Amino acid sequence: MKKGELTRSAIVASALELAGLEGLEGITLGKLAERMAMSKSGVFAHFGSREELQIAVLKAHERRFADDVLLPALSRPRGLPRVRAIVERWIDHTGSAGGSGCLWIAGASELDDRPGPVRDALVGMVRGWQRELMRAIAQAVEASELRDDLPPEDLLAELFGVVLVLHHDRRLLRSPDALARARRVADRLLGAAAAASRAPSARASRARRRPAEPRPARHRLP
Amino acid sequence: MKKGELTRSAIVASALELAGLEGLEGITLGKLAERMAMSKSGVFAHFGSREELQIAVLKAHERRFADDVLLPALSRPRGLPRVRAIVERWIDHTGSAGGSGCLWIAGASELDDRPGPVRDALVGMVRGWQRELMRAIAQAVEASELRDDLPPEDLLAELFGVVLVLHHDRRLLRSPDALARARRVADRLLGAAAAASRAPSARASRARRRPAEPRPARHRLP
After folding, report:
1. From CA A158, how far away is CA B155, in angstroms rounded?
2. What is the pLDDT of residues A154-164, one digit of tens each?
3. Which of B113, B131, B111 is nearest to B55 (CA)?
């Protein structure tokens, strides 16, 4: 890395920390210059605008999120094992983040009413993440490991709900059991979404209730 | 209402609107004085502190929320019908709020890292709401209309997740199908939580698979 890139990365790392404490709107060139013992114009030289800096921070969060959650899960076999790995890591990431919480979730509230390039960047990243999860879900449906009568976007919404509630309960309510509950609920939701082939007893009992009798005559009439 | 109370209510109504646009932190005595065409000291005379004003705004939101969601649902019979009514109204309230979103949800992100009386007030209100919903769920479990092997706080978390996702998808992502999806997912979650008496065939088939045979002898030994 060249010196300029190093400084830029150091500024972004410091801004990411600041955003964890005070939100994306808490990132100002002045505060960053103070943290970095640089002049405001020095910080400005690396970014050009506060918005560019905020977007760089969102991207840094995205890289960290991918490293923590998505990439390790991609080493699991396609299908339900990979979906489970993603969800488990997502919950752990949200439930144990060193106190600052998820910048995307906090940023959603900050930015939802502020049109502009920072909001657009966040929306693009969240949609990108949803696409990754949808792909993993679709693969599990194809492999007949998840039910095909449950719209994948519904399962995505259920799982995203678990993560949002965890973030809320852990950070606002300081619930000591938020993490355990999130794991339990996600596990149950995935269980309910699992394809029936995973619960052969249900099929067997259905078969037993309906022996292969000939259909009543009227069904055979033209 | 005395004139002082009227003025106070008008200030709170204006602050509630302002909070919908700029968040709780966006409420300042200066901005409010401008909106109300009053002096800052005039606004200050009614509240004493910005925090007191912010708490008054949260309480105003609570009253509106109770009027919209909880009170109408309390006219439904106890048990699953009341739980369903609460959830339906909660989703409608979140999905159709005139654009400003839910102040409690937005406030959670703003306040979770800011200890103090405003945060305490919000936590108290959210817990109060959760208690109301838990009571309705517990009544439905008692009436054998909801499963008793599903912890009520888990069902609460699942339903709260639906609302948080709706808020997120509608406001940040501007998803046109967020509301329909929220209704569909909540309906499915409540269906899965409904007691087996609503699906008698499952019980019947279980009984058929295990006829009342005498237990093996070793179970009867001391």
Report:
1. 12
2. 999 999 999 99
3. B111
Identify the segments of chain A with pLDDT beneath 70.
97-100, 197-222
Is A206's Cβ below 8 Å from some Cβ in B? yes
CA distance B153 to B148: 12
Residue A98 contacts B where some CB pair is shorter than 8 Å: no
Question: B39-65 pLDDT, tens per residue?
Answer: 989 888 898 888 999 999 999 999 999
* Amino acid letter for position A137: I
pLDDT band at B196 (very low <50, low <70, confident <90, very high): confident
Nearest chain B residue to A167 by CA distance is B109
Just give the CATH number of A56-198: 1.10.357.10
By the 10 Å C-beta count (0-12 exposed, 13-18 middle, 19+ buried), B25 is classed as: middle
Top pLDDT among B200 and B15 is at B15
For residue B182, name the pLDDT band (cuts at 50, 70, 90).
Answer: very high
Residues A28, A19 contacting (CB under 8 angstroms): no
Gap from B133 CA to chain A (nearest CA, Å): 15
**Residue A8 neighbours by CB distance under 10 Å:** 18
Q: Does B10 touch chain A (CB under 8 A)?
A: no
The ipTM is: 0.85
Residue in B closest to A122 by C-alpha: B172
Q: pLDDT at position A96, please?
A: 78
Label residue B24 exposed, middle or buried (CB < 10 Å: 0-12, 13-18, 19+): buried
Tell me if B109 and A105 make a contact (CB, 8 A cut-off): yes
Helix axes B29-36, B40-47, angle to 10 degrees: 110
Q: Is the pLDDT of residue B215 over 90?
A: no
CATH fold label, B51-196:
Tetracycline Repressor; domain 2 (1.10.357)
Quick count: other Cβ atoms within 10 Å of Cβ B115? 9
B131 touches chain A (CB under 8 A): no
B23 touches chain A (CB under 8 A): yes
A65-69, B13-17, B147-151, B208-212: least confidently modelled range: B208-212
Residue B83's CB is within 10 A of a number of other CB atoms, namely 26
Nearest to A158 by CA among A125, A186, A191: A186
Region of poorest pLDDT, from A115-129, B7-21, B157-171: B7-21
User: How far apart are alpha carbons A45 and A162 in whole angstroms?
Assistant: 41
- Gap between the Cα atoms of B96 and B121, Å rounded: 25
Residues 26-85 of B with CB under 8 A from A: none
CA A197 to centroid of chain Cα atoms: 28
